[in-house]
Amino acid sequence: LDLINDILDIEKIESGKLTLVPEVMPVDELVRESMVLNKAFGERFKVRFQSHGEASERRVHADRKRLLQVMTNLLSNAAKFSPEGGVVQISTADVGPNARVSVHDRGSGIPEAFRGRIFGRFTQADSTATRQKGGTGLGLAICKRLVELMHGRIGFDDRPGGGTTFWFELPRHAT
User: Fold this and answer.
1) pLDDT at residue 124 above 60?
2) Cα 78 to the chain's mean position, in Å?
3) In this structure, what are the phi and psi dihedrals at residue 42, rounded to the nearest 5 degrees?
4) How far apart (Å, rounded) are the C-alpha atoms in residues 73 and 78?
5) CA-CA distance, 48 to 58, in Å (whole number)?
6) Which of 42, 48, 111, 149 lies most in the core, judged by the most C-beta atoms within 10 Å?
């Protein structure tokens, strides 16, 4: 079912048939809601989600449902690849005119040979851990396209001390 839904989503996005319903929303509310919605998934992989940093009044103009879909993909990936008992941290920051949401894990990181293809369709790093954890290989491709449809950008960085930080930025809404 996940595979079918992901294929339907990516096809709707790429054919221009996906309709976004943008609204002004506080970023910290998005983070809290996504942590609640994904708590059971974190527990399944024996990791906790933790927001850090000061809550702010950052607001973006975005589709709530689709932004929660992006957060769910990023949080589920971080949970799957974090060590048991670990903490996946979520932070927010201002980066120029944008609001950035970052998801930090302590997993094994992204293999160098895979980095250029990570946001492609049906791509997964070829490792035993990836095959055991499952997934469609479409989650990050969907995230990239959704964030771009909302006039943002997405990327990742190595995390000092090990792991990866996936982030996305959206233009802040003037209050």
Assistant:
1) no
2) 9
3) -60, -45
4) 9
5) 24
6) 42
* 135 compared with 35, residue with greater pLDDT: 35
- Determine the Cα angle at 124 with ends 127 and 38, to 5°: 100
Which tens digits make up the pLDDT trace of 164-174? 999 999 999 98
Burial status of residue 23 (CB atoms within 10 A of its CB: 0-12, 13-18, 19 or more): middle
pLDDT (0 to 100) of residue 57? 78
Separation between Cα atoms, residue 87 and residue 50, nearest integer Å: 7
User: Closest Cα to residue 104, out of 165, 167, 28?
Assistant: 165
Q: Tell me: the pLDDT tens digits for 70-111?
A: 999 999 999 999 999 999 999 999 999 999 999 999 988 887
Contacts 24+ apart (CB under 8 A), 150-154: 150/20, 150/22, 150/60, 150/61, 150/62, 150/63, 150/66, 150/67, 152/62, 152/98, 154/70, 154/119
Residue with tokens 């054919």: 15
Q: How far apart are the C-alpha atoms of 118 and 140, rounded to whole Å? A: 7
Q: What is the pLDDT of residue 131?
A: 41
pLDDT at 138: 82
